[in-house]
Amino acid sequence: MPLIMSFDIDVYGRLSPSIREVISLVPDALTTQSGVGDDLVAGIFHRESGEYCFTLEGPYSIDDLAPEERRTDLPEAMKCRYSITVEGTDAGHVAHALRFAEHLAVCVDGRHIDLQAEPSSAALPETSLPISDTSFLHVEWHRRFDADSRSLAAHYVESAENFLPRALPVAYGNSEPLKRKYATDGKRGVDQMYRAQCGRDRLVIRGQKPLLSGFIDAWSDEYVEEFHYIRLVFDAAALAKPRFRTAFEEFFIDLARSTNSFFAFAEVNQSRHASSLALSQRGEWPGLPTRAPWLSWFSSDYAALVRPHLSAGDSKETEQGLLYRLPSELSQQGAQQGEQAPWVPQEFLPTRGNPSRKRQSTATAKTMPSFLRSPSSLVRVG
User: Fold this and answer.
1) Per residue in 116-149, pLDDT tens?
2) Which of 251, 255, 152 lies closest to 210 in space, CA to CA?
3) Among candidates 179, 155, 159, which has minimal Cα distance to 167?
4) Residues 6+ apart with CB under 8 A from 225
5) Per-residue DSSP letter, 134
6) Alpha helices, DSSP H, located in the chain
7) What is the SS3 string spanning 84-129?
8) How many beta carbons lie within 10 A of that of residue 69, not counting itself?
9) DSSP code per residue over 278-318
């Protein structure tokens, strides 16, 4: 097997910000050192240790590339190329470089290309989740309204930038057509619009595959809703790639922690429009999803109640909460059998007693943390 001396990624874009603008995308854990006398090269290093991570070059005009360097599989609108190189194949450095490349591709309205052959997945388990050409990954984070509610969009963008850039929006806004672009506005623009214009209207998100769509709930609780949430829908085919699954899980956990979610879940099913979480009657928390999610996050209060019943999957304890990963075959069984295969005791699930509106909750779950039954104790956000 030949020795690989470097790991290389190209990023092509319709936009061509300077390298000084691009390095502002580097996460806080890393820092930069610009090349001496060269405005097209920057070295990226770990902030604490000073250890080298990767090198960034560009932007180079595609028109200036030699014929043998030009790709023939790119849209004509692509104007520039950036090159990212990891000297050696340290897994941690490569992971940082790939996340940065994905983030950069969104910001330049383009795509990133891993110049290596797709790595063997032998080191990571293949998924046997119920994935087909028409499968969708539904992800939701649920929290109480509080003084931090106006920051929900900023938390979402920050977690995506740091762990899963492919979850970043391409377009966003509070009404159709969506005119705002993340590539132009960045995190600050998304945050400012949400704070200023989404007290009563939700922020709608459109992505580029695998992210399909989503929204962030309005931050004011002056209406019927008692809880605050984020919903995203992905093309579930992305879960076939071990690298995506790992990054997705990190994103899922980080956003649950930063938003102080009392419950979050990721579920694969065949519907683009709905998960198995029941619809509430009057904005109250109905209870846990009927079907078995692939991933679940419980706050400490919720975990204390449900932990004794989570015996079929893998649990990961943290100070902020509990991550529960259900074996894929049981998740698939739940997706196929629905209410016939409860993943937790019935007391944690809402009652659905209206056959003409099967998603509607007619009675909330009997068992849930006490604060979910006491909306009057919540901090009011004006």
Assistant:
1) 743 333 333 445 555 555 689 999 999 999 999 9
2) 251
3) 159
4) 217, 283
5) T
6) 19-22, 91-107, 152-163, 182-197, 242-258, 300-306, 328-337
7) EEEECCCHHHHHHHHHHHHHHHHHCCEEEEECCCCCCCCCCCCCCC
8) 11
9) PBPSSS----S-SS--SEEEEEHHHHHHHGGG--SSEEEE-
Peptide bond into 165 cis (omega under 30): no
In Å, how far are 7, 38, 42, 109 from 118, measured between CA atoms?
12, 32, 26, 23
Distance between CA atoms of 143 and 135, rounded to whole angstroms?
27
pLDDT in tens, 92-102: 888 888 889 98
Q: Coil, strand or helix: which one is 265?
A: strand
Per DSSP, 209 falls in state T
| Region for 360 from its dihedrals, namely left if φ exceeds 0, alpha if ψ lies in -120 to 50, beta otherwise | beta
Structure-block tokens of residue 213: 């769509």
142 contacts 285 by C-beta, under 8 angstroms: yes
- Angle of CA points 336, 230, 291, to nearest 5°: 15
| Cis peptide bond upstream of 59, omega within 30 | yes
Give the length of the chain: 382
Nearest residue to 55 (alpha-carbon basis) of 25, 28, 26, 85: 85
User: To 5 degrees, how large is the angle CA 88–CA 61–CA 169?
Assistant: 75
User: Which phi and psi angles does 196 have, rounded to 5°?
Assistant: -85, -30
Per the DSSP assignment, residues forming a β-bridge with 11 are: 82, 112
CA distance 103 to 211: 13
Residue 337 confidence (pLDDT): 46
Per residue in 277-336, pLDDT (tens digit) is: 998 877 889 999 988 899 999 999 999 999 999 987 899 998 899 999 987 544 554 445
What's the confidence (pLDDT) of residue 279? Answer: 87
Tokens of 203: 């922020």
